[in-house]
Design a protein that fits this description.
single chain; 484 residues; alpha+beta; 14 helices; 47% helix; extended; coiled coil
């Protein structure tokens, strides 16, 4: 929030310049809002430095890990292939140290090497670089400019290089896999080749995650762009001078453009039809050829669309049909954790007052369809009825659970629980867990996205309810939220 306020001060100063409001020429007193404006580039620069260092370290570590695995699989293929075709094994440089060392050099950051990398468009980098260029044009913001401002622009260039590096590594792995697939198609390499392909898929998945992380704007950048886009002068500047504006004709560019220039170099429908008629001999033959071609094209397109939809729906890799990669495997341990809460209320009986269980759970995502975890609950007593309300510490519980997705938002859930259902004064009761009431639960859970969080509704059956003393409830109803 504090950073957003600082940014707001910054942009207020900028908009004053854009809208013709004069900024005072005299020295700005220390502690004023504009003094915070002057600190904006340094704060954003520190944030970018932290992001770059963190992602660069992770990228180098993961690249070393995956390339080592790919190299080992190639070495195994080389040993198998040498018994059948030693010349082919030698020509492919399977498991070559020099080959994989050259891939690692892509991360070296050498200026000559990075200049040769493929250029990939990044909306974040384009928008922020254009915004900085826009701010730099106003002479009344001279105090906002200087070495720190140039450093900030250079940092966005470095982020662009990191994005290009991840894309180049992805291309290298893809090209290598395509080459080996072509050359080794008829070779009985079995599981070794399949393992190589799977490692390549996971590495490309990891690279994609880092690329998205580099291009995802932080809160400070989002707020800056959100406010700047409200300034007409900036929108016009972006349309003309951004990379996106140079690639496409954006609305702001049409004001100073001759409309007839839009059709220059484009063929009309009549010209295309005339050209086809000359080749086919008659207008009817040309129309039949076009109609037939369109039908074939639409059929091929529909076939490809169905295959793509089926692969995406089943979670299959497009590079390796039939293989469903685990989308959680490339995520860090903490990103696979899922924090949740739920609430359960049980009515009173002759033994116990009405109670509410407030539970906190921590799940670990095995994959996108399975979550395993543990939890703990606190039982609060409310008394026997509405006329005799009395809040008591009525017990506590320990839980384990396993959730498995069935279809869409419905999950199969189950687990074991140990509940202590007596008032307690301290946690010494944990020493005798074997005396707690045991439950084995299974049922259906529905997870529904609500804003940033997911709401959960569970209906559970307790398989041990008749063995409990006193007997518990066979059916339990719980509601809650997954916070992460």
């Amino acid at each position: 929030m504090r950073r957003c306020l600082i940014l707001a001060y910054t942009l207020v100063g900028v908009y004053g310049a854009c809208l013709g409001q004069s900024l005072p020429d005299q020295e700005v007193p220390v502690g004023t809002g504009f003094e915070k404006v002057l600190a904006f580039p340094a704060k954003l620069s520190r944030r970018l430095t932290e992001q770059q260092s963190l992602i660069e370290a992770k990228l180098e570590r993961q690249t070393e890990k995956y390339l080592r695995k790919l190299q080992r699989q190639e070495a195994k293929m080389r040993r198998k292939l040498a018994k059948q075709d030693s010349a082919l094994a030698a020509s492919l440089n399977l498991g070559s140290d020099s080959l994989y060392d050259s891939w690692k050099q892509t991360l070296s950051g050498d200026s000559v090497a990075t200049a040769q990398l493929p250029k990939n468009y990044s909306g974040k980098i384009d928008s922020m670089t254009t915004a900085l260029n826009f701010l730099q044009r106003d002479p009344r913001l001279a105090r906002l400019q200087g070495p720190q401002f140039e450093k900030l622009k250079n940092q966005y260039g470095q982020i662009g290089n990191q994005v290009n590096q991840t894309e180049r590594l992805r291309q290298l792995v893809q090209e290598r896999k395509a080459l080996l697939k072509e050359k080794l198609a008829n070779m009985p390499l079995g599981k070794t080749w399949n393992k190589y392909q799977k490692q390549a898929v996971y590495y490309q998945q990891q690279l994609e995650e880092y690329r998205q992380a580099l291009q995802d704007p932080n809160m400070l950048e989002k707020k800056a762009l959100e406010i700047l886009t409200q300034v007409p002068a900036f929108r016009k500047f972006f349309d003309k001078y951004s990379v996106l504006g140079s690639m496409f004709r954006l609305p702001g560019q049409l004001e100073d453009m001759d409309p007839t220039a839009l059709t220059n170099g484009l063929q009309t429908r009549d010209a295309v039809l005339s050209n086809i008629t000359q080749r086919m001999g008659s207008t009817q033959a040309a129309q039949e050829a076009m109609s037939s071609g369109m039908q074939q094209g639409q059929a091929e397109l529909e076939s490809l669309k169905r295959k793509l939809d089926n692969a995406l729906e089943n979670g299959e890799s497009l590079d390796m049909p039939g293989f469903k990669p685990n989308d959680q495997r490339t995520k860090s341990f903490f990103k696979r954790l899922e924090l949740g809460t739920n609430l359960q209320t049980v009515r009173s009986n002759s033994f116990y007052p009405a109670t509410s269980d407030f539970a906190l759970s921590l799940g670990y995502k095995l994959n996108k369809k399975s979550v395993i975890g543990i939890g703990a609950s606190y039982k609060m007593g409310w008394g026997q009825d509405i006329q005799h309300i009395k809040i008591t510490h009525q017990g506590m519980g320990i839980r384990t659970f396993l959730d498995m997705k069935i279809k869409k938002s419905f999950w199969l859930t189950g687990g074991g629980e140990w509940n202590y259902r007596e008032p307690f004064e301290d946690l010494a009761i944990l020493k005798s867990v074997n005396q707690w009431q045991q439950s084995v639960l299974f049922g259906i859970q529905k997870k529904q996205q609500l804003g940033k969080y997911k709401s959960t509704i569970s209906v559970l059956y307790d398989a041990l309810w008749q063995r409990q003393l006193p007997k518990g409830q066979p059916l339990l109803f719980r509601v809650g939220y997954n916070l992460k």
